[in-house]
UniProtKB/TrEMBL annotation:
Catalysed reactions, semicolon-separated: D-gluconate + ATP = 6-phospho-D-gluconate + ADP + H(+)
Catalytic EC class: transferase
Record bears the keyword S-adenosyl-L-methionine: no
UniProt xrefs under Gene3D superfamilies: P-loop containing nucleotide triphosphate hydrolases
Record bears the keyword ATP-binding: yes
Source organism: Phormidium yuhuli AB48
Protein name (Swiss-Prot/TrEMBL): Gluconokinase
Amino acid sequence: MSKSPVPVVIVMGVSGCGKTTVAQGLAERLGWRFLEGDRFHPQANVAKMTRGIPLEDDDRVPWLQELGVAIAQARRESQTSGTGIVVACSALKQAYRDQLMLNQEPFLWLYLRGEFELLRQRLETRSDHFMPAQLLASQFAALEEPQEAITLDCGRSPQDLIADTLKFL
Ligand SMILES: Nc1ncnc2c1ncn2[C@@H]1O[C@H](COP(=O)(O)OP(=O)(O)OP(=O)(O)O)[C@@H](O)[C@H]1O
Ligand SMILES: O=C(O)[C@H](O)[C@@H](O)[C@H](O)[C@H](O)CO
């Protein structure tokens, strides 16, 4: 008898939309595993962003490769328990989402949508992260909004966003 695939939710969107906050909260609520996409960036990518230089497609290839492998690995580890996985990953372009999904059972995409000004303010006030607010415009320039995703307004509270997402699971 074939088992149903371990569920994977990818929380995506531009910097500051709340991917980490919502993905972590969702994983906690569900007792699922959380993967922080930023942890899979090569050091050179983090250094680049820290200096205020946007990543290019080529920079993101090894990152998405590493993250895709980690998701597949986490899925294998959860095969017996069926425990799901929640991932925070910007996944700004369709090609990045395709690369991440390569050879895998489908993911559920949660897109946190927000206006530039709200996100700029969030990034300006956040102090414990490498990503500078000056890169926000480049994040919007790269963004291709997903067609097949649960789309929620990231201006709402994390609690509301998590509660709404739970309705889809
Ligand atoms: N729904 C929300 N309402 C208000 N503030 C929020 C919300 N979600 C996140 N924040 C705050 O906004 C900032 C960015 O949140 P977070 O780090 O979760 O975003 P992110 O999308 O993961 O960002 P990045 O891609 O840069 O890592 C944090 O200071 C966080 O506390
Ligand atoms: O593709 C990208 O440009 C990067 O993934 C960024 O989105 C950052 O990693 C993230 O926003 C900062 O946490």
